[in-house]
């Protein structure tokens, strides 16, 4: 699954970042302390516009993905919604990604879009919140408690102008999987800055161990390392870098930004810390080499945790840490992306009721929330399930909760910018003479070509 289809990567390693429930004769604000697990239609939260209807109604919802046995969205959610709101029937359609984008575009154009739709954060995908909010297709959700409790990163991922239009339903991490046994045998601990990381690589190389394996034949995996470094070298200094790209205040060619990120990553290839044959093997082959103990580390996402932890030809304990792209003495930042989440069609005839469903869904304690967590597709950061975080991901969750993480860069760029970066970086490590200056200039030109306000 390619990184540029970022919203589709909300799998076993994802974290949920939104919440709340409510009660019918109260305002949304007053209801926040209610017991969501026992909420009924008569007690349900209302929006600020009034009480919920008592008429029998049908609310429609459309999501992307493939429905599986006991699928949460298509089977579990509708049942639990009707238990909480007996007069509301939730009808859910789930389509493969490409079909979803096509169907959504057609339905929005005809004014017949579902009440609840799946959105992608920022500029990511054909159903990005920026493009749909600009076109007036989305209902603001700013006042919902779910939005407030989701955290600043989730709010910013679904913000357009002064309003928030979606609920970040999860996040995935990019990090560095490592062989704990190899580290221990060579007296190494988890590095906390870039110099320490380079030292780890050198110690492993001197011991005859390949430090890092990557499958760059599938060029999208180059983003796995680059975005971790960028979180520390670009966004930690200027969180608004991508916003300013669109105003012309910043450029990819600005000295000390993306040129530094690319130079740092290229160093890993120049020194042989990433194997010289990386352009000749694919992503799955690289995972297998790591699993078989042929390298000490690999850069990958939480979405591939199951494959990374599969049995190989040797047994060893796995660990996972954020690639420390920070300078010594500077704070460490992680690369954590908010995934796709629900929004409400502005033309819906049942906006208040749709809001009440979202509040209950993401309240942290309702039966809907518990079922969502138990489905195994999220790592809860609050409420039920929040004490069951996979130890592999704990550091990332902690950094996210401390505000020390940044979204994946391609969420802030028009689709195609990251592909230009990958192609040019591939030339650079492939010995074709392409320089870091060529890469950042190419990224800037591609951004300007693709970006339209």
Question: What does this protein structure show overall?
Answer:
36% of the residues lie in helices and 13% in strands. It contains 17 helices and 13 strands. Strands 7, 8, 9, 10 and 13 form a five-stranded mixed β-sheet that branches. A hairpin with a 2-residue loop joins β5 and β6 (163-164). The chain starts with 14 loop residues before the first strand and ends with a helix.
Structure summary:
This protein is an alpha/beta fold and 453 residues long.
Rg measurement, Å: 23 Å
Q: Give the CA-based shape.
A: globular
Distance between the termini: 28 Å
Q: Averaged pLDDT, please?
A: 86
Instruction: Count every beta strand, where a strand is a DSSP E run of 2 or more residues.
Output: 13
Low-confidence parts lasting 5 or more residues at pLDDT below 50? Answer: 1-49
Structural class: alpha/beta
Number of alpha- plus pi-helical segments: 17
Order of helices and strands: EEHEHEHHHEEEHHHHHHEHEEEHHEHEHH
How does the major sheet shape up? Answer: 5 strands, mixed
Task: Describe the SSE topology.
Elements: E1 15-16, E2 57-64, H1 72-84, E3 88-95, H2 97-110, E4 116-119, H3 129-134, H4 145-149, H5 152-157, E5 159-160, E6 163-164, E7 171-179, H6 180-185, H7 194-206, H8 222-235, H9 241-247, H10 258-270, H11 283-291, E8 297-301, H12 305-308, E9 318-321, E10 334-338, E11 341-344, H13 351-361, H14 367-374, E12 379-380, H15 394-401, E13 405-406, H16 417-429, H17 436-450
Helix pairs in contact: 1-14, 8-10, 10-17, 16-17
């Amino acid at each position: 699954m390619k990184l540029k289809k970022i919203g589709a990567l909300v799998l076993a390693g994802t974290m949920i970042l939104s919440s709340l429930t409510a009660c019918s004769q109260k305002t949304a604000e007053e209801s926040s302390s209610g017991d969501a697990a026992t909420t009924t239609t008569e007690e349900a939260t209302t929006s600020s516009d009034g009480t919920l209807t008592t008429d029998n109604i049908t609310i429609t919802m459309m999501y992307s993905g493939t429905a599986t046995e006991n699928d949460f969205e298509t089977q579990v959610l509708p049942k639990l919604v009707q238990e909480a709101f007996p007069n509301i029937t939730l009808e859910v359609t789930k389509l493969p990604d490409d079909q979803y984008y096509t169907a959504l575009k057609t339905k929005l154009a005809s004014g017949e879009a579902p009440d609840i739709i799946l959105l992608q954060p920022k500029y990511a995908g054909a159903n990005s919140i920026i493009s749909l909010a600009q076109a007036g297709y989305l209902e603001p959700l700013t006042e919902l408690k779910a939005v407030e409790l989701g955290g600043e990163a989730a709010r910013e991922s679904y913000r357009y102008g002064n309003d928030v239009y979606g609920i970040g339903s999860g996040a995935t991490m990019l990090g560095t999987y490592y062989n704990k046994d190899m580290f221990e045998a060579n007296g190494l601990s988890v590095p906390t800055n870039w110099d320490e990381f380079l030292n780890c690589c050198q110690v492993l190389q001197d011991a005859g161990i390949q430090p890092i394996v990557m499958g760059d034949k599938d060029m999208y995996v180059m983003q796995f390392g680059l975005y971790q470094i960028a979180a520390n070298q670009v966004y930690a200094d200027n969180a608004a870098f991508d916003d300013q790209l669109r105003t012309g205040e910043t450029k990819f060619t600005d000295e000390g930004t993306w040129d530094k990120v690319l130079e740092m990553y290229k160093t890993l290839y120049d020194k042989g810390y990433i194997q010289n044959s990386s352009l000749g093997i694919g992503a799955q082959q690289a995972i297998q080499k790591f699993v078989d103990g042929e390298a000490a580390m690999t850069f990958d996402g939480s979405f591939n945790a199951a494959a990374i932890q599969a049995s190989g030809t040797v047994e060893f304990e796995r660990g996972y840490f954020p690639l420390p792209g920070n300078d010594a003495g500077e704070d460490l930042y992680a690369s954590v992306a908010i995934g796709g989440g629900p929004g409400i069609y502005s033309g819906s005839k049942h906006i208040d009721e749709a809001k009440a469903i979202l509040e209950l869904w993401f309240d942290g304690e309702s039966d809907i929330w518990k079922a969502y967590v138990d489905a195994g597709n999220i790592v809860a950061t609050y409420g039920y399930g929040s004490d069951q975080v996979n130890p592999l991901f704990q550091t990332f969750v902690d950094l996210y909760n401390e505000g020390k993480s940044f979204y994946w860069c391609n969420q802030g760029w028009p689709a195609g910018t990251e592909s230009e970066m990958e192609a040019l970086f591939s030339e650079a490590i492939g010995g074709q003479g392409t320089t870091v200056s060529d890469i950042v200039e190419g990224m800037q030109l591609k951004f300007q070509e693709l970006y339209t306000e």
